[in-house]
Amino acid sequence: MGTKHIVAGLAAGLALIPAGAGLAAPLPGGLGPCVPGNCGPYPYPPHNGSTTLRDNAISVYAGGDYQVRESAAEAEGRIVVLGDFDQNKAAVSGGAYNVGIVGVGSQVRPEAGTDFLAVGGNITVAPTQRIIAEGGKVRYGGTVTGTVSVLVPADLIQDPNATAPYTSLLTELEEASQCYADEALVPETGSIVYPNPMDPFGVIFSGDGTSALQVFYVDRDLVALNGTGQVDLRFVGIPAGATVLINVTKPDWHANVSGGFDGTWEALREKTLWNIPSATTPRFGGTAQFQGSVLIGDPASTATVTNAGMNGRFFTAGSIVHGGTGGASGNEFHSYPFTGDLPSCDNVVPTPSASPSASPSASPTASPTATASSSEDAPNPAPLPTTGSRVVPLMGLGFGLVVAGVLLLFGSLRRLRDNP
């Protein structure tokens, strides 16, 4: 074997050993993009038709509490709340809040009979209002006050371990959010043009045209030049199939978005992750169907979502307030997956949080109101499987190639010495 081939082998081995955040990986904790796998291409735009596709992945995750307010209408897919679930909508908006199956969305719903809503603490629904989870189960650790509509009473399950399979995900999400936004490990590849006198209502994200991971750092609110109005988002220079990672670094961040320019935002929906590691009061407002998945890393945060629709997963270590008067009515979470490739953080030492999440209560008594039909109770769902490649096997392969290359190199040098 020639020396140039040995050197090439050494280079190949070293390329497999990451430094900092390295090889591409999925979201942590087996969050998808599809569980168990009958998802196909998700229909877009959101619609009220039918589909045979099913996805049991978590669509919305809150490490704290979940509040339904004002005009919030529904949350599609599996919803997991480690704290309490409290519904008290505005009277004029109607009293129902759909979970799991919705009127308008991707219509890729969880399988019938699975947990549509899992709550670690209490469920409280205001008088004359109700949660609708017909077709699935609602599992809770504390008490139920108010009306939860399921097909049969047995689908409303008091279980002190209601969210036990999902508690470790809280730390994983917090650590991943910190890692993705570490500019020393994940450098910016593009640039952003914010509203200016030439374009007071537009924000342009310009990629480098080549990188498989397009990274942007947002350090200000996404609002119009006047400081409050809505903006349109435009994405240029993003190669086909690239992942778009948008790290929001502003402490108290507000997005007031009316839409995407020329469809460039919509096309990136399933490859875009909005990562917010440290903002404590992020707000999503405007009349837009907000495109992409969201990851919020601070357990002490409360995210307020008042825009028309969120087209992607929504994962937060903190709390969620869904619904408001942020320029849209009928606020909705629509279940669309994240299919991008993110930096691997397996070998990055995280910074521990100073703000632990709320501890959900767990009382065995309950006073639920349930509608009727039939279904069987099921054991608490097992933790979701991890999907995608991880860094450890590749590290082993990389070190193996390096060792083999070093041995071959020394062997070749010895032969050259002995046979000049």
The gist of it:
The chain has 420 residues and is of the alpha/beta class. Helix content is 13%, strand content 29%.
Describe this structure in words.
The protein has helices spanning 3-15, 168-180, 391-418; strands at 24-25, 58-62, 66-70, 74-76, 78-81, 85-89, 96-100, 115-119, 123-125, 130-132, 137-140, 144-149, 156-158, 191-193, 202-206, 213-218, 231-236, 243-248, 254-260, 272-276, 283-285, 289-291, 293-296, 302-305, 309-311, 314-316, 319-322, 332-334, 342-343, 367-369. It is globular. Helix 1 packs antiparallel against helix 3 (391-418). The protein is 13% helix and 29% strand. It has one domain. The chain starts with a helix and ends with a helix. The chain has 3 helices and 30 strands. By secondary structure, the chain is α/β, with parallel strands linked by helices. The strands form 3 sheets. The protein has an 18-stranded mixed beta sheet that branches. Mean pLDDT is 83; it is low at 1-20, 354-367, 371-410 and 412-417.
